[in-house]
Every structure is written in structure tokens, then in C-alpha cells.
């Protein structure tokens, strides 16, 4: 756990956005980054309560059915809103990494080895907690590398090795991260695992069956997803370093937005032409490209709106979550999913039913109450200036 200062507020200026050269002073937070992480985690903790799946039960219409479908992972091929959250968080982690590394380099005792040791420790704890949170399921041991923390442990470490390289080499490294698993899936022909993009019949599934304690045949393969996902973190790192540069604001925005648009189009083109289908469960290149493009475009929009134009009202409900994103993730996995959700549902639905509130409506109210409690916990930590980091 470490303590950090509260968000620094910048005053408005009379300069036009086009003329601004926007460089944050040392120690100042990028508000759009905290906001976006907060949005991601807010949607995630709200979705984990199960509220979107309970909406069509209580209010069955086309809109609630659409929401319910979008806030579940795609069954195999396709792209839902819920699928974008993990890639978006990993890309934001890369952007945050750029700012953190810049602060480290400006310290008088900075050395590369000191920064590398910090990354090693962070990666170790990310891997430790990522494995631990799913290590026991259905009363048996279950080791997997599928969640955001375990993948982030690897992508953070690998991204650190390109952090001092020129942007051209960083881009080449990200392309390599996409090509390596693509070649593995297409070139390895093992009997029973020789169909690259068929669930449980590809090379990745074979690797899972060897290295995991039990093969998760519901979700295809997960253990080598971090290779392709490293591209997300590298792109976030590239975006962060560009935002930290002394270039003019619209130059930064156009670079990020155009690059995001290009890889977004490329991702969907690979899927629509059936060259590489969009498969979240094995992080195909089309999936990584499309989700990375979506996130970069949103990042550019938020940066322009929040950090340049200074539209900063109403951010607090999200930034308080974004500034303790790792903590709240561990909280709703360890406590929320394993105990709080079920207890609150039984208690609140039962009490509301005594007041003649239908069970289906009570279930939604219960989800919202749990979400409010988790949000307030983040707000409490924010007010106390307590920010948990790995």
C-alpha cells in the first residue's frame, strides 16, 4: 500500500486547444486516465453484481435483453462490450506505466536496475494475486492464467523491455506480439489440436492441457493470451509517452486517434474476411487490434475533453474508483463474489418482499445496493487519501 496525494486541479486558460502544448508537471495526475480506469472498473463491478442479467427477468423487453447480452462475454466469435473491458484496462496500464517511469527517471537516485526491480516486484504480486483469486473453485484447486491480473503481470514486464526504445521499435514489438501466437495457431499440427480457431481444438488448448492443473474446456485457451495482449500494454505505453511529449495537443490527439482508427478497421477487416476470426477467448490478432483501436480512440476523446478543455465536473464518481482500481478488483473477487453478493441478495430481496416488492425487482435493487456499498468503499479510501498499489 502506498499513499498518494489528491488529484491536482488545473485552472482554465484562455488559450485555444489548438495552440496548447500540454505537458503535465511532475507529480500531476492525468485525469482522463483515472477517469477511464474508473469507468472500466465501475462497469466491471456493476456487471459482476449480475444486475444486467436480472434486468430482462424483471423488465423483459428488447433493450434489457440487449444489455444482458452485451454484458456477458461472447460465446466464442464476436465482440461484446464486456469483452472490451480487460483489453482496455491493460492498455490503460501501459499509459500509466509511461507516467510512472517518467517520474522514476526524474528522481536523483534513478537507475535502470532500480526501475527493473520495481517492475519485477509488481509483476510478481500481480501474478500472485491473479492466481490466488481463482485458485479455489467449486471446492477444488483451479490454477489458471485467464484474468486481468495474471495477464498484466506478463504484459507489464515485457513492455518494460521496450520502454526506452524508439516508437518504431515499440510498434515492431507490438506487431511481433500479434504474429507469434498467430503463427503458433496456424503452424502447429497436433492430432486433435490442429484446427487454429476451433474451440478446444487448437494449439493453445493443447498448451493449456499440459501446463494447467485442469483444462477449462468452457473457455477455450487462456494460458498464452498474454503474448498477444502485450500489444495492448505496449500501445498504451506508446500513447502515454506521446502524451508526455512536448508536441502540440492536436498533434498528440490526431496521432492516437488515427492509429486507433487504423488498427480498429484492420481488426474488423481480418474478422469479416475470415482471415482471422475475432475470438476473445484466445485473443486473436483481430480481437486485439479491434479492442485496442476502440480504447485508443476513447482515450484520445477523453484526453481532449478532460485534460485539455478542462471539462472536469462530474468525474469524481469514476475517478475515486479508478484511483483504487486494483483494490476494488480484488475486493469484489475475494469478498463480493464469494460472500457479499449472495448475502445481500438474500437479505435485501427477503426484506423487500415483505413490503410486497416482487422478487425480480428486489434482485435488481440488491445488485444496486451492493454496487453502492463497493463504490462508497472506494470513496472512503479516496477521502482518506489511501491508494493501494501493487
Describe this structure in words.
- By secondary structure, the chain is mainly alpha-helical.
- It has one domain (18-387).
- 65% of the residues lie in helices and 2% in strands.
- It has a two-stranded antiparallel ribbon. Strands 2-3 form a two-stranded antiparallel sheet.
- The radius of gyration is 22 Å and the shape is globular.
- Mean pLDDT is 86; it is low at 1-27.
The N- to C-terminal Cα distance equals 7 Å
User: Could you say which overall geometry the principal axes of the C-alpha atoms support?
Assistant: globular
Number of domains as seen in the coordinates: 1
Number of helical elements: 14
Q: Biggest sheet, in brief?
A: 2 strands, antiparallel
Give structural attributes.
390 residues, mainly alpha, two-stranded antiparallel ribbon, two-stranded antiparallel sheet, 14 helices, 65% helix, disordered N terminus
Amino acid at each position: 500500500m502506498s499513499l498518494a496525494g489528491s488529484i491536482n486541479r488545473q485552472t482554465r486558460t484562455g488559450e485555444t486547444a489548438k495552440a496548447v502544448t500540454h505537458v503535465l508537471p511532475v507529480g500531476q495526475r492525468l485525469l482522463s486516465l483515472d477517469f477511464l480506469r474508473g469507468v472500466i472498473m465501475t462497469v466491471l463491478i456493476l456487471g459482476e453484481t449480475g444486475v444486467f442479467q436480472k434486468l430482462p427477468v424483471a423488465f423483459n423487453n428488447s433493450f434489457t435483453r440487449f444489455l444482458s447480452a452485451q454484458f456477458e462475454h461472447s460465446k466464442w466469435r464476436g465482440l461484446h462490450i464486456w469483452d472490451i473491458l480487460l483489453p482496455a484496462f491493460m492498455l490503460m496500464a501501459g499509459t500509466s506505466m509511461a507516467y510512472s517511469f517518467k517520474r522514476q527517471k526524474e528522481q536523483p537516485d534513478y537507475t535502470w536496475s532500480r526501475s527493473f526491480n520495481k517492475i519485477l516486484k509488481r509483476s510478481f504480486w500481480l501474478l500472485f494475486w491473479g492466481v490466488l483469486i481463482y485458485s479455489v473453485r467449486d471446492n477444488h484447486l483451479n490454477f489458471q492464467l485467464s484474468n486481468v491480473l495474471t495477464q498484466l503481470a506478463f504484459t507489464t514486464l515485457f513492455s518494460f523491455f521496450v520502454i526506452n526504445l524508439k516508437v518504431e521499435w515499440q510498434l515492431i514489438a507490438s506487431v511481433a506480439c500479434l504474429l507469434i501466437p498467430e503463427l503458433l495457431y496456424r503452424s502447429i499440427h497436433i492430432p486433435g489440436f490442429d484446427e487454429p480457431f476451433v474451440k478446444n481444438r487448437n494449439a493453445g488448448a493443447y498448451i493449456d492441457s499440459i501446463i494447467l492443473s485442469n483444462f477449462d474446456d468452457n473457455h477455450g485457451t487462456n494460458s498464452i493470451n498474454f503474448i498477444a495482449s502485450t500489444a495492448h500494454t505496449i500501445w498504451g505505453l506508446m500513447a502515454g509517452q506521446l502524451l508526455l511529449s512536448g508536441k502540440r495537443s492536436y498533434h498528440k490527439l490526431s496521432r492516437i486517434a488515427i492509429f486507433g482508427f487504423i488498427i480498429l478497421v484492420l481488426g474488423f477487416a481480418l474478422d469479416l474476411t475470415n482471415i482471422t476470426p475475432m475470438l476473445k477467448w484466445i485473443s486473436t490478432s483481430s480481437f486485439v487490434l479491434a479492442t485496442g483501436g476502440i480504447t485508443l480512440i476513447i482515450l484520445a476523446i477523453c484526453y481532449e475533453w478532460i485534460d485539455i478543455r478542462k471539462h472536469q465536473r462530474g468525474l469524481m464518481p469514476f475517478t475515486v474508483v479508478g484511483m483504487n482500481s486494483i483494490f476494488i478488483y480484488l475486493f469484489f473477487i475475494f469478498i463480493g463474489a464469494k460472500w457479499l453478493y449472495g448475502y445481500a441478495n438474500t437479505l435485501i430481496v427477503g426484506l423487500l418482499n415483505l413490503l410486497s416488492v416482487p422478487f425480480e425487482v428486489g434482485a435488481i435493487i440488491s445488485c444496486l445496493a451492493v454496487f453502492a456499498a463497493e463504490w462508497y468503499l472506494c470513496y472512503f479510501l479516496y477521502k482518506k487519501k489511501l491508494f493501494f498499489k501493487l
